[in-house]
Amino acid sequence: MATPEGQLLDAASVQVAATNTAPAATGLRGRLLPPALVVIGILALVVAGWGLRSASAGIRILVAVVGGALLWRGLQVLGIRRYGPTFRLGLVAASAWLALVMFLAVFADLLPIEHWTKADISREALGLRPGLRWPEVLGRTTNGYSELSHVIYGARTSLTIGVVAVAVGVLVGIVAGLFAGWYGRVIDGSITIATNTILAFPPLILILAIVAVYGNTVRTLALGLAVLSIPTYTRLMRAQTLAIRQREYVQAADAMGASNSRLMWREVLPNAVLPVLSYSFIVVAVVIVAEGSLSYLGVGVPSPQPSWGGMIAAGQRQMKINPHLVFVPATVMFLTVLSLNRFGEWVRKRVLGGDRSEIR
Amino acid sequence: MARSIGLKLLLLIPVIFLVSVATFMMTELLPGDPAVAILGENATPERIAVVREQLGLDRPLVERYVDWAGDALQGDFGRSIVSNQPVLESFKERLPVTLQLAVMAQVIALLLAIPFGAWSAWRAGGRFDRGTTTFSFAIVGLPPFLLGILLVYVLALQWQVFPVTGWEPFSDGLGANLEHAFLPALTLGLAEFAIYTQLLRGDMAVTLQEDFVLSARARGLSSRHILLREALRPSSFSLITLAGVNLGRLIGGTIIVEKLFGLGGVGTLVTQAIPQKDFPVLQGSVLILAVAYLLINTAVDVGYNFIDPRVRRGNA
Lengths: 360, 316
What we know:
The complex is a heterodimer. Chain A is built from 13 helices and no strands. Chain A is an all-alpha fold. In chain A, helix 2 (27-50) packs antiparallel against helix 3 (57-83), helix 5 packs antiparallel against helix 10 (260-277) and helix 7 crosses helix 8. Chain A starts with a helix and ends in an 8-residue tail after the last helix. By secondary structure, chain B is an all-alpha fold. Helices cover 78% and strands 0% of the residues of chain B. Chains A and B meet through helix 1, helix 6, helix 7, helix 11 and helix 12 of A and helix 1, helix 6, helix 7, helix 11 and helix 12 of B.
């Protein structure tokens, strides 16, 4: 057991045991514990949210965190019992959240929420705290806008920019990487210098320069952020192309007299593209953070149009009196980015087959 | 080895050239007449003439680029359209804030990451490891400005341990300076800390499987000695590389923290210049930052040769 191999095995088994410890479902205690955790967790969350009005914020947050942890643990154990040891609550929650955000963003106009241009400027509506009433579940800004509808329309802005930027970045990057990897020599050299030039700028500085030149419209933001993602995709695709062009089936096709374009577009491209695409969810998360940062700096999405970063920047000025104006959009943005990362990581692993992949 | 360093420096030249061309082209790419685009539609013809003159718009493109690049090489980046102050001067004025933030963030991140990463690797899969990993992933997922806002809310507004905004220069006393710099630096440093910890944990876990660690354990050395004296050095190459590269990134990355805490650093110079369309300031700052970033990255690359004997010997 004291050999390095033995230790490695030990470490590996510890790791497995640590990720999936479901108490055996035997005995009354074993069966009742998880549902009890769920119930206690929900109760704690309710108490933190609507009981304890007089307690300090610290205690309420503490109760909420403990409640959330218990709820999470209970659901995880129940999930493992129901769906087997591969069940991952984090992944399920991330997918559910992404589906919800996407649904709300796409159908924002059809939902029974106020349009983002509508404001309720009666005295009691201004700066309303979140609470159990419709449509002000998430409260109102000090200008009377509904926080809920601004968060949802903000999701639409963020997701549009994220998806368009990544789509453009993928298209350009894949074509550039394919050419660089396939032809090599001068084409490879010039494409590499071009990507190195983009990478030579600190990312935020580059996007700020682009916004300074073309103005801060949604289109500029999407295309500018696409430029930032191009080098990543070009490099990934180039590496893939270099690896796949050596494979037997490509050489066989070549020997059988397939044309150059057939080899490139029918043999190499379809086999190289999937691992490259598998990074897209993670890149969308990066783009959303960048867009949020720009809007926060006041040079992102133009101001009347709602965006998460813009809402946070506006709320920050009155964080002491109205903390919900910061924390509502911040939480939504955080959960979205976290979910994209978690889901994206899962997609990547599924496509590449585990951690040790040929592509980095 | 001298050859490979020379090659790296040689490859730097075309990239710096392209970066300078791209930066110079910023005003060229402006839609319409750059002078009108900068001053707005309602500007008087006299003002437009002055700006045209300042940008030298009447001369051919290549000539203007050569002039601009030549001046830039001598440290002359022109004058601000708004304040008429030389760009290099206002850049120099603001650089200390940004540099201090970047360096402090780096120090905080490394000071935290080494013990956390080492201990996580030592007890891989244990409670401490899992806690650290979860915490790291939460922080990496948190956009930098959200992390900053959270810290401000808890540490400055609720507990009032630190001042919310503002800056005290170094000359006003170390205590006041550090008090104001700590929270912004912590905001920057925590994100780096998360990445460094995970990186060190991974490398350390591999090192700990080596025979010399086993023999150190057999000799009965303390875990602290093994981790910090024996295993840290061979595990820290990627950490050093990343920390070096990140120093360049941090100099650009302080922009958000500067806005968050109302600090007048280089980032503020850039963000303020954008709505004012102050292109000389923008071009100057972007060029300096990009070249600094490139030089730091290359220096790290070259420095790597000296630290890691495996790279020195050859095929990397």
